[in-house]
Amino acid sequence: MLQEDNSDPEVRSESDDDSDWDEEPEAITDFAEVDGEPLQAPAAATATPSTSAGGPAVASSDSEESEDEAAVTRPAAGYTRVEQAGGQAVSRTGRVWTTVPPNHRVRAHPGNIMRGRPGPKGAARNISTPKDALALFLPDSLLTKILGHTNEEGERLAAAKNRTHIPVTLEELRAFIGLLLLRGCEGDRRCDVNDLFYGPFSRPFYRATMTEHRFVHIKRILRFDNREDREERRKKDKFAAIREVFSDFNCLLREHYTPSDCVTVDETLRAYRGRCGFVIYMPNKPDKYGLLFRDVADARSRYVLNMLPYAGKAEDPDPALHVTGASAVVHHLVRPFQRSGRNVTADRFYSSVDLCEELLAQGLTYVGTVMATRRHLPEEAKATEGREDQSSMFFWSENIMLTSYKKNRNKNVLLLSTQHAEPLVATDGKKKPEVMHFYNETKGGVDTVDQMLGTYTCRVATRRWPMAVFLMMLDVAALNGWVICAASGTFTNTRHGARKLFLRELGLSLVTPLIRLRPVEGLTMKTKAAIESVLGSSLPTQPQPPAEPTTGRARCVLCVTEQQGTGYKRSRHTNVNKIKQRCFKCTRPVCGNHSRRAGAVCNACDAGPSQGSDDE
Asked: Tens digits of per-residue pLDDT, 496-542?
């Protein structure tokens, strides 16, 4: 069984997610709820201050509390109050739990009151196009930093082969990112690169943007740190190859968005099987091998707020970067949201009584399942003998409510909550507690993000793990940009592929500037046709330079015509002399007998103008 401190992520199993429950959370399967109107404030946030509500309450005046006192004590619709005998239960550590609920007629706890409006904030409020939304998370300053390290690597490789490196420009880097996003959007990430640019299965926007050789070259030399001092930095941080860029990106995630009343903490496994010292094996995950990230996401809108990569232990680890222990991971992820009155939902891998008390002291409530082996839990909550199936027991200790739900003879689910204080169970057949319904509704924040990223992902096969991390950053930036644009009402109809339309418009807006700057001279007809297809307009016709007069000797075309007839260009006999003189209008060779006027104009070209001038 997993323990809280110094736990290795390699032993983290899918069974800790309570996925064996008979009812999956609706947030994971209902995409209409996932993407539709994600930024609306929940109704519980504006309800009467009752600790039995499904979200943080808003404080009211004393007069309003006295008038609505009867309404506060009434259970919510669809729930009934459980009456149980008074008593106490003592855990092995000596912690006392009582079966009598606290006074529910008082105002909500200060940690259960949220202030502020969820949704985009700052510059993100004025975003209406996908390109501007992506620029919030990948600004020019971040791309310029990547561009500098990329050109340094290009110069190093070119010098080793005695070649000249053509520097990558900022427009080229944006277009390269656009092609990666379009490749994931159109489902081409498993196709061969040559098939994307050329052949019967190619798409016009690849060929119109850049050549296949340039695309592969940029992908090869893309770097995110200084190569010279990388080994020195690796002694303190194994994630040093992309740490600086990743940290800047991570800070931008929470800078442009205010989360709703509930956030979800969970882990995600990014598929990767290359050479890397911190690849994680999780047999119950779909990808099994990959890079581990602990994430916190908005439980309502599925906006990614913070990420913590697992990079193993370095030789001399930096305490600020090397975070171990389940409780320490949660504290690190939710630190930006302290004193905000929000709720944190996590599974039993992270839950403990100590964590609930620490978060409550920081102005955050907590809801999550908990392992039966955790400290401070009473034995009465773990026991199932003598209890009916689908029955619930409730225990309270210092603002923490412990719920024990016996599903059947072999299944007992324990939940901790500092947001709920009422012993309420549903009136349907399964009689699930209210806290369990709330957990099912909010635990799928990160899982739904993984599902959405997997649907349209630019992840491709690569041997370099920093490249795999960068591709994940692109997916997260595109998803967060989608959430921000959805707040403006531009892309909201998710049942008709609006997110795919968003990614298409985003990718085309990134590649179009480079296509317009691409010179047309020297391009093949198929490449020109691809450019015209992407731009939706014909290319301007290039003026042809006048042909230089030929100075070589040739036989007079009119003499040959007289001897052999029309259509012959060469004389069968050598009785026609070769001459250098040519008609300056048709540039054909003409002798003096068949030309007149100054300038050597042949009779055929001179016939029209001469007759016209005579008529005048």
From this structure: 568 899 999 999 999 999 999 998 888 888 999 999 999 988 877 66
DSSP state of 433: B
In whole angstroms, how far apart are CA 550 and each of 34, 584, 594?
Answer: 73, 10, 19
| CA dihedral over 74, 361, 256, 466, signed as positive or negative | negative
Q: How far apart are CA 267 and CA 308, in angstroms?
A: 9
Category of 109 on φ-ψ map: left (φ > 0), alpha (ψ -120 to 50) or beta: beta
CA dihedral (286, 291, 295, 298) positive or negative = negative
Pairing mode, strands 343-346 and 365-369: parallel
User: Kind of pairing, strands 280-281 and 289-298?
Assistant: antiparallel
User: Is the distance from CB of 422 to CB of 393 less than 8 angstroms?
Assistant: no
Tokens 């029209």 identify what position?
A: 608
State how far the Cα of 3 lies from the Cα of 126, in Å rounded to an integer. Answer: 46
Q: Are 60 and 49 in contact (CB under 8 A)?
A: yes
Q: How far apart are CA 462 and CA 303, in angstroms?
A: 27
Global pTM exceeds 0.90:
no
| Amino acid letter, residue 181 | L
Structure tokens at 389: 């199936």
Cβ pair 178, 184 in contact under 8 A: no
How many angstroms separate the Cα of 279 from the Cα of each of 106, 271, 465?
50, 9, 10
Tell me which residue has tokens 């500037």.
513
Q: Scanning the structure block, which residue is given the tokens 């989360």?
A: 259
Structure tokens belonging to residue 64: 């309003």
Cβ atoms of 474 and 179 within 8 Å: the answer is: no
User: 449: closest CA among 253, 164, 243, 231?
Assistant: 253
- Convert 160-172 to b/e letters by CB count within 10 Å (16 or more is b): eeeeebeebeeeb
Tokens of 55: 């979200």
At 192, the amino acid letter reads D
Cβ pair 436, 407 in contact under 8 A? no
Residue 360 CA: distances (Å) to CA of 357, 366, 402, 424? 5, 8, 15, 22
Please check whether residue 602 is in contact with residue 587, taking contact to mean a CB–CB distance below 8 angstroms: no
Question: Measured between alpha carbons, how far is 458 from 188 in angstroms, rounded to an integer?
Answer: 9
Element (H, E) at 513: helix 498-517
- Dump pLDDT digits (tens) for 216-260: 999 999 999 999 999 999 999 999 999 999 999 999 999 999 999
Alpha-carbon span 418 to 365, nearest angstrom: 5
Upper half-sphere CA count for residue 604 (Cβ side, 13 Å): 17
For residues 69 and 125, the answer to whether their CB atoms sit within 8 Å is no
Report the relative pairing of strands 262-271 and 343-346 from DSSP bridges. Answer: parallel
Cβ contacts of 353 within 8 Å, gap of 6 or more? 95, 370, 374, 375, 376, 377, 397, 400, 416
Where helices occur in 106-139 by DSSP H, the ranges are 130-137
